[in-house]
Design goal:
With about 240 residues, the protein is α+β, with helices and mostly antiparallel strands. The protein has a domain at about 75-244. It has helices at about 10-30, 80-85, 105-115, 155-160, 170-175, 185-195, 205-220, 230-240, and strands at about 50, 55, 120, 130-135, 140-145, 150, 180-185.
Amino acid sequence: MTVSLRKNPTRSTSWSTAALAGCAALFGLLGISSSAHSHPGPIDENGGHYDGASYHCHMSVCDEPDTFTRGSRDSFFFDPESRDKFFNAADWPYDEDFDGDCQNTRNEILAVTSRAPVRYTNPRNCEARTGEWFDEYTGEVFTVAAQLELDHIIPLRYAHNVGGDAWPPGKKVAFANDPMNLILTERREANRKNERGPSRYLPREEYRCDYVRQWLAIAEKYELRLATQDSNRITVILRDCGED
């Protein structure tokens, strides 16, 4: 006895049409554009995301950034707050294994900065468990990797707001994984710093001179125009450090 698996094409088509119409209505109620399914990518706080040399809105209420229309002179006159809502952490990944050795950027930094042999959670040495790390921000020593956070000296959101939003995807990834801009610090201290610039956060006094010098070096390397209050604060600190 043969069992037919053929379905009623009319009924199936009718159901599909109704289902698609229902989905479209639901997207409308939620404020989600139907074009959201035309390309992948998590959305930012504005309701869209960058896709190479363009920006795509996925919500019915969504502003277009001036990222690709402003001239070079416009970078002298910017409002960081107007750019902040277009920040998307997914554009700045640093938790991936870029060289294929099973260690992500955090574990690469843990491995090269430990002052003692690193012990790992598995035989492949993918994830650091213990070692000895000196926290420049606090001056404390830690032996358990889980106590430490990988911090970006110039925070990713900060970089986005002062010109990094116009970078191509590859440059954003390079910035997020540049050892020059990475440092390990105790988790609570990382939370205290968060996305603040030098005008709102400074590490312990013994490290402040080196800290603000690093800010300037990174900003120069990536051609970032620091916020005025941070630039002024750095100038004052360097003067106290004996630099003109």
